[in-house]
Amino acid sequence: MKKIISIIILLLLICAAGAYYVLANQEGDIINMENKKVLVAYYSHSGNTEDLAKKIQKITNADLFEIIPKTPYSKDYNTVVAQAQKEKENNYMPELVSNGDTKNYDIIFVGTPVWWYTMASPVRTFLAKNDFTGKTIVPFCTHGGGGASMTYTDMQKIAPDAKVLQGFASYERTAKDSEVADWIKSLKL
Ligand SMILES: Cc1cc2nc3c(=O)[nH]c(=O)nc-3n(C[C@H](O)[C@H](O)[C@H](O)COP(=O)(O)O)c2cc1C
Description:
Rossmann fold
């Protein structure tokens, strides 16, 4: 009898340990970045990229920096689409409220909406105004169905001294916490 009770207790302990392991690896778990200093910098025009940035920030426990252009873009879709097209053609870099500072960070997640197949203009400014020597850029973007297009390769062009990793692209606001966490776990940081 004693032996049966011992076996039952052992089985219960194994189940409890298994349940703990599953819970600890679920959404909301903070991924250890091995003492690296991490920043999540993003620009968002209509909130989708901000939503993704905050998911990444929560998972990595990083600092968060919003890239804000000095002159805000129109909320009218057609107006901003026309302006963004011209800005892309001219490689325009709008002035920012603050350029931020990447100096104290090892890994910088850089987020942008896809504008005309590449990053939004304010993100160009952020990349150009900061020093990425010896740093890792992890790009992420949200798009309207066309995917990341040239976003990551264009980031590497503006920040040639950075190591630019494989990015994460989400259709508008559809990324699930678990997908974001799986992507971050897969990164070679
Ligand atoms: C100016 C402009 C250009 C866009 N260009 C593209 C594009 O080239 N490819 C695409 O898939 N979506 C494009 N979109 C859709 C946005 O990338 C998408 O809605 C994104 O999630 C918006 O992010 P936000 O809410 O953070 O601003 C464009 C939207 C705007 C306003």
